[in-house]
């Protein structure tokens, strides 16, 4: 199976970033000439986030991510998730960070 995957990452200013990932459907072959298809296996993810530093040791961050799956794809960005085929996923995170 072959699959084209690419990533684009941008940062602007201090503490801001954006990332886009894309996975193509790819291609496949089976022994004996059996039918093989990769229709519907494309997917992409876009995420955007920002961090604000209160001091050298304390900051707050906000992050949003969205995974878009084609009708048969199951790309997942959740640690314990098990999405259905074709399900799109959105995540929002807000957090505080303290460096020791």
Secondary-structure map:
Elements: E1 5-11, E2 16-23, E3 43-53, E4 58-69, E5 89-98
Antiparallel strand pairs: 1-2, 2-3, 3-4, 4-5
If you average the pLDDT, what whole number results? Answer: 87
Would you tell me the structural class of the helices and strands?
A: mainly beta
How are the strands ordered across the major sheet? 1-2-3-4-5
Q: Spans with pLDDT under 50 lasting ≥5 residues?
A: none
Question: Distance between termini?
Answer: 46 Å
Tell me, what's the shape? elongated
Major β-sheet annotation = 5 strands, antiparallel
How many β-strand runs? Answer: 5
**H/E series, N to C?**
EEEEE
Strand share of the residues? over 45%
Radius of gyration: 18 Å
**Number of H- or I-type helical stretches:** 0
Share of helix among residues? under 10%
